[in-house]
Amino acid sequence: MPLDRKTALNFVNVLHEALPYLQKFQGATVVIKYGGNAMVDDVLKASFARDIVLLKTVGINPVVVHGGGPQIGELLTKLNIESKFVNGMRVTTSETMDVVEMVLGGLVNKDIVNLINQAGGKAFGITGKDGHTIQARKLKVTRKTPDLDTSEIIDIGHVGEVDKVDTRLIELMTEGGYIPVVAPIGVGKDGASYNINADLVAGKLAEVLGAEKLILLTNISGLQNKEGQVLTGLSTEQVDALIADGTIYGGMLPKIQCALEAIHNGVTSAHIIDGRVAHATLLEIFSNEGVGTLITNDADILDQTQMEPS
User: 283: left (phi > 0), else alpha (psi -120 to 50), else beta?
Assistant: First the structure.
């Protein structure tokens, strides 16, 4: 049945709005951290996979980095292994690390690869251990002792941070037409495995790959001001001010600091977007309004972006 005139015009308008972005980002790399509701809701999972395939099809090179905290917790519960957290990070013993590798490098990674392949793409899943892509060091965690006068160093096991990134394997996959799907597990100099925050891995990959964009899928609509309105376009200086005045705090801080570091190290823009919205990735890249918060120091981009809260 043919489209009615109004629907047809709307369709054409969408394509016309997307055209400048299609032209601008031809050949660019976009690193996407995939997690939250988008990773557990079947409809959102399918829409995300199709979005990634479409990006590759139009000449953009997506690199997907995924989390998997809830899935890890679920399997640990089934195995009667207690989950402990320090400063929001999972204490990862050798036993827990085995489960982390099984879930992130196996179950979750291969599920995402399969979804993208079923949508018509060519995905290839790796962990950061493959090809020594993500070289890690043990994360040192400190916190104040009860008397608040001194700090103590807490050993949280196989939790790491990125020491170095070797992009050769990812670049080979990209050049071969594949979509890399990366589990955030690094390898230490001693060969030990380390569980690394997926946002941090995505940010470091974006930096080293010279990505045009770092996109972090979340379960919120974006950065909000104190009145709860989404801030749609911000410079790093403005974000620093929001941190200083307490607007940005708590669990959002590490994600924002990851985005800021990526921009300071050469990534053109970082996006905090609402993964609960179907096709959020495409809407953020190819539409004028987007579905979250854009952070950049590119004056031309900021001029085109609504600076007032929505």
Answer: alpha
